[in-house]
Amino acid sequence: MSINLFDLTGKTALITGGVHGLGMAMAKGLGQAGAKIVVNDLSEEALDKAVEEYKSVGIEAYGYVFDVTDEKAVIEVITKIEAEVGPIDILINNAGIIKRTPLIEMEVEDFTAVITVDLISPFIVSKNVVKGMIKRGGGKIINICSMMSELGRDSVGAYAAAKGGLKMLTKNMATEWARFNIQINGIGPGYFATSQTAPIRVDGHPFNDFIISRTPAARWGDPDDLQGAAIFLSSKASDFVNGHILYVDGGILATIGKPSNES
Ligand code: GCO
């Protein structure tokens, strides 16, 4: 009998911040592969809207209001989710923020805020979800990294420090937890067409032209381009893949690029 290595039927997946953009696209992929979807946000209204959207495409979805940086709240809500929806089999640490400010002008409190959400919260949520996974004998954790896990760019220093740290946190989680049949990996999205990048994607905008020329695939990513990677790293298909960062970037990291006046 053949088994479908990518089937997620009966699994429960928590995607932090999965109320729009890349998190929602990945959650929809998991939902379409059979998983029940749990998302969180700070706003009840954003959650209700997202849950409606999941349900409209036939996905069983639940929303919980909590702050991923507040360990006490995280512990309480995990207990609630596991009682009300099911044990968390898959965790995607997707919630994140960015502040684009040159380092020399950046206030320590803004730097700290980025590190807290983008690096410390994956630690807080994973640490508390993994305890149940260890008891149950397995699980999947995916940390959403970035091009900035590998590359610098003017004005995104705090974000790069956090995402570079998240890459190493992923490897260390694998080091400590792989022995419990838990696979911890990262996905590193390249430049994607989301509402956040809309203003810089318009035709003729220098950043739009820069990204297209810097990306071997010569286009922005479509959020749905992340679904295959998310399903793979959530499913049986990746049961011996650990501590890996899967870059979904149209080839950006493969090349040094070329001068803008050359074809
Ligand atoms: C930027 C972008 C990036 C993306 C993404 C790239 O200002 O350069 O916002 O940082 O958010 O993480 O992988």
TrEMBL record:
It holds the Pfam family adh_short_C2. Keywords: Oxidoreductase. Its EC number is 1.1.1.69. GO terms for molecular function: gluconate 5-dehydrogenase activity. The keyword Oxidoreductase applies. The keyword S-adenosyl-L-methionine does not apply. Belongs to the short-chain dehydrogenases/reductases (SDR) family. NCBIfam families: PRK07097.1 (NF005488). This is Gluconate 5-dehydrogenase. It comes from Flavobacterium circumlabens.
